[in-house]
Amino acid sequence: MGLKAGIVGLPNVGKSTLFNALTSAKALAANYPFATKEPNLGVITVPDARLDKLAELVNPQKVLPTTVEIVDIAGLIKGASKGEGLGNQFLANIREVDAIVHVVRCFVDDNVVHVDGSVDPVRDKEIIDMELILKDMETLEKRLDKLRRSAKSGSKEDVRNLDTSERLLKHLESEKPARSFELRDDEKEFFEELFLLTGKPILYVCNVDEGSVINGNEHSEAFKKAVASENAEIILISAQIESEIAELESKEERAEYLEAMGLAEAGVNKVIRACYDLLNLITYFTAGEKEVRAWTIHRGDKAPQAAGVIHTDFEKGFIRAEVIKYEDFTKYGSEAAVKEAGKMSVEGKEYVVNDGDVMHFRFNV
């Protein structure tokens, strides 16, 4: 679907180490600012136990999980909105992603320099927020110049957009991100057209030391309090642990390592699933002897749109969808048994696909 999440943060907070653990792409992770100059793009597999269970029941020739693209973006510093450091490049890269994974440093290590000399995740977040807000204000002021001229013609749409923009600019001037701006229903389309950096959905990742990965530490606690009003998800990980897990060859070795560390699962799995949710995506499955496969669609998509993800012809010639709930498939053990129990439904063009649906499409081209 081409949707991307971008990893952002100050230099040396663990962005590239996390990116490597997510993708095993081996981006340069180094102990100096701007180790990442060009954005690294990786494709990450979305872990889903339901896919494994379906594969176990069907025993197909292939198993194909769904994926999300993730981008490791160059570290930002104070003054980026004015082009300091790699500011212009950073801001251009972040404009191209659909959601933000903001990594903050919550560990103390004298061997890893901090660009501002001390560990303070709240200050670090505020630096990045302010640079993005300043850039959004610049974007909005340019738009306002045009709207003030066009609104003189009396167009209701231009007058409304002018009012929205002026209120939004005041919101940004109060040092609040665009994502916290309260929109009326008739303003949402215009808001999306602005492509504001602080309007993108956000996930916070606190990179802690190994001993703090379960319960956190004073730095992660201070950060949680600082962002409590944002209603954003916060995940604790140790990028160092994740990089060590990524080096292990087998599932058994990784499971043993996680057990030894007292962890139920790898932190990257939580990050990936959170990115998926942040992008407002869900998964449906197709299950047959040739392959069991997970497909990515937007929450709220109807059956023809879901079919179109497989092939555009499926959407154009859509006739109906045969739908089995995941719980029914696993309860009865096969498609044939589900049909015999009368648990398969036949749905038309208005059916809204649910997360976990197992689907088969009938179409005519």
Walk me through the structure.
The chain is of the alpha/beta class. Helix content is 41%, strand content 19%. It has helices at residues 15-23, 49-58, 87-95, 121-150, 156-173, 188-194, 218-226, 239-247, 251-261, 267-278, 303-310, 312-316, 326-332, 335-340; strands at 4-8, 40-45, 62-64, 67-72, 99-106, 202-208, 233-237, 281-287, 291-298, 318-324, 345-347, 358-363. The strands form three sheets. The protein has a six-stranded mixed β-sheet, sandwiched between helices. A three-stranded mixed β-sheet has the order 3-9-8, sandwiched between helices. It has a three-stranded antiparallel β-sheet with strand order 11-10-12. A hairpin with a 3-residue loop joins β8 (281-287) and β9 (291-298). It starts with a strand and ends with a strand. Residues 25-37 have low confidence and may be disordered.
Please provide a brief summary of the model.
This protein is of the alpha/beta class and 365 residues long. Helix content is 41%, strand content 19%.
**Count of β-strands:** 12
The largest sheet, given as strand count, sense and whether it forms a barrel, is: 6 strands, mixed
Q: Tell me the overall shape.
A: flat
Order of helices and strands: EHEHEEHEHHHEHEHHHEEHHEHHEE
Residues in helix, %: 40-55%
Distance between the termini: 23 Å
Assembly state (oligomeric): single chain
Q: Structural class, judged by helices and strands? A: alpha/beta
How many helices does DSSP assign? Answer: 14
Give the low-pLDDT segments: 25-37
Strand % is 15-25%
* Spatial extent as radius of gyration: 23 Å
User: Largest beta sheet: what is the strand line-up?
Assistant: 2-4-1-5-6-7
Q: What is the average per-residue confidence, as pLDDT, rounded to a whole number?
A: 86
